[in-house]
């Protein structure tokens, strides 16, 4: 069981890195030089909505310090619009600008293309749903309180 568990952890890491590489290659193919792959995914995940910087971190997509840095760069480069919350002056809201919306739409088309090509690679929607279910259960397991209380393993 331990070997299978460790193989899965390695695969998750490799999949994440490969996804970032695909996004990076697409950005470079488009000749975009003021945006990196993580920033493109932030734009994609915000989409046409509006979120707080804290919500981006809470969603678990990005590490806290990276979120602040990347949001700052996205604002500086005109991809995001940042505004103070009228209700809580400590909180800032971000939304995608028109320039950022073009990236969001491009990423959406890229992922749509990938999704359509999955069947040619022998992956069905059922396969993806099954993998997603397993990863969701793993996330719930890793997020359980026993893993943060110091009782997650013998000898703790």
TrEMBL record:
This is MarR family winged helix-turn-helix transcriptional regulator. Residues 5-140 form the HTH marR-type domain. It comes from Fodinicurvata halophila. Keywords: DNA-binding, Transcription, Transcription regulation. The keyword RNA-binding does not apply. It comes from the Bacteria. The keyword Ribonucleoprotein does not apply. Coiled coil: none annotated. InterPro entries: HTH_MarR-typ, MarR/SlyA-like, Tscrpt_reg_MarR-type_CS, WH-like_DNA-bd_sf, WH_DNA-bd_sf. PANTHER family: TRANSCRIPTIONAL REGULATOR, MARR FAMILY, TRANSCRIPTIONAL REGULATORY PROTEIN.
């Amino acid at each position: 069981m331990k070997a299978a568990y460790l193989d899965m952890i390695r695969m998750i890491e490799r999949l994440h890195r490969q996804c970032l590489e695909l996004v990076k290659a697409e950005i470079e193919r488009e000749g975009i030089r003021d945006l990196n792959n993580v920033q493109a995914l932030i734009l994609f995940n915000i989409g046409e909505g509006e979120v707080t910087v804290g919500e981006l971190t809470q969603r678990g997509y990005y590490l806290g310090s990276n979120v602040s840095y990347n949001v700052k760069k996205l604002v500086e480069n005109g991809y995001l619009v940042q505004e103070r919350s009228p209700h809580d002056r400590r909180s800032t809201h971000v939304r995608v600008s028109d320039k950022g919306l073009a990236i969001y739409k491009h990423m959406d088309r890229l992922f749509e293309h990938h999704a359509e090509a999955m069947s040619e690679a022998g992956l069905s929607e059922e396969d993806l749903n099954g993998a997603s279910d397993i990863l969701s259960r793993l996330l719930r397991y890793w997020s359980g309180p026993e893993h943060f209380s110091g009782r997650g393993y013998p000898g703790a």
